[in-house]
UniProtKB/TrEMBL annotation:
Pfam families: Orn_Arg_deC_N, Orn_DAP_Arg_deC. Keywords: Amino-acid biosynthesis, Decarboxylase, Lyase, Lysine biosynthesis, Pyridoxal phosphate. Substrate binds at residues 323, 360, 364, 392, 421. Specifically catalyzes the decarboxylation of meso-diaminopimelate (meso-DAP) to L-lysine. Homodimer. This is Diaminopimelate decarboxylase. The keyword NAD does not apply. Its cofactor is pyridoxal 5'-phosphate. Gene3D superfamilies: Alanine racemase, Lyase, Ornithine Decarboxylase, Chain A, domain 1. CDD domains: PLPDE_III_DapDC. It comes from Streptomyces rubrogriseus. It comes from the Bacteria.
Amino acid sequence: MSRSAHPAGPRHADVLPEGHYTAPADDLNALDPKVWARTVGRDADGVVTVGGIPVTQLAEEYGTPAYLLDEADFRERARAWRTAFGDDADVFYAGKAFLSRAVVRWLDEEGLNLDVCSGGELATALSAGMPAERIAFHGNNKSPEEIERAVRAGVGRIVLDSFQEIVRVAHIAQSLGKRQRVQIRITVGVEAHTHEFIATAHEDQKFGIPLAGGQAAEAVRRALKLDGLEVIGIHSHIGSQIFDMSGFEVAAHRVVGLLKDIRDEHGVELPEIDLGGGLGIAYTSDDDPREPHEIAKALTEIVTRECEAARLATPRISVEPGRAIVGPTAFTLYEVGTVKPLEGLRTYVSVDGGMSDNIRTALYDAEYSVALASRTSDAEPMLVRVVGKHCESGDIVVKDAFLPEDLAPGDLIAVPATGAYCRSMASNYNHALRPPVVAVRDGAARVVVRRETEEDLLRLDVG
Ligand SMILES: *Cc1c(COP(=O)(O)O)cnc(C)c1O
């Protein structure tokens, strides 16, 4: 399926982008609850509101572009994951999706654990008071300094990613007089993305130790011998934006196969298995993600069944959703600067941000939707491409969508489902100032990450 070739369509679009939006929605003013944060709606004047506050007011107060984060929704989704998996499993929020101290506190209060994968993420988590034993440290090339900080802090687990790291972490832990709890990340030869997964013998990518060729078994063999390590389990993460559970099924089958081999060879039953994250969310109305309780049920059943077949006690399961918790809880608010109809093609709508605040469209060919937020309109739909203000034609925020034909400079538009991998991957391209994250809840808004200033930029440039 080619997602990069889109035949251009006329404004009323009888030639429509392949694999997406077969037609404009019946009502362009409607806000599909699948893609919008839970407290989002429109007020009596037709203005989009979040947490009870109109976006026009938020724009005035905090400027645009801005990421508006629905705190109640974030907490509800975090809690839903926690409740779905219950006390016999652990939910680690993947901090790389979006991390700030406010978010760390919410996670702590809602009983979730936290994945970090750099010294910076670890520092953020610790400074917000997340108990170290509830932090997992990830990454394929943790520096010795990062490892030492993590071990000293007492993180609950370090996920080992290579043979060299097994020795490195063992050595550092031992030199600090500690025994570090670790999981070993393996690659099971399954790669899942959206509705498809591919099972191959070898996985040509940088993460983990391949199950193939007995390498993962050898890694466990070596780790079990090292005094500085307490091997608590096996870790597998198979992809991102996944809707189809069959990839997890194959992964769990292979991980449990390894646990069985470990039991047979060493007489040790490792007590934990981590199935990673990657659960999909709705970016457009075409996506149909599963609820946490369905995912929990499916994963628990798969692991239980595989363990029964292998005559193993069912290990404690952990999962690591990032996108599925934070993704749907935020949207980006932009102001329209120019509206440029290209006759016979489409209309380009330029906003005051772009690839610096959302790189996913350029990087992954991601799909997004968009709505007019500062008012409603009964005008006819026009096919648009929402683009940013950067010096690059690939600076696209929303590839194909419909907005009302009377869209004009000064209108506010909102792109939903930008909570994950937007602020966390934001850049200063063209010396853009990265937008703030404003958390809104019960009629009150507060900045949790402030907007960058030109002083911030100049402070780094020492001249
Ligand atoms: C990125 C990542 C996750 C989270 O992925 P999402 O798609 O945000 O759920 C979880 N675990 C690991 C190891 C990751 O690298």
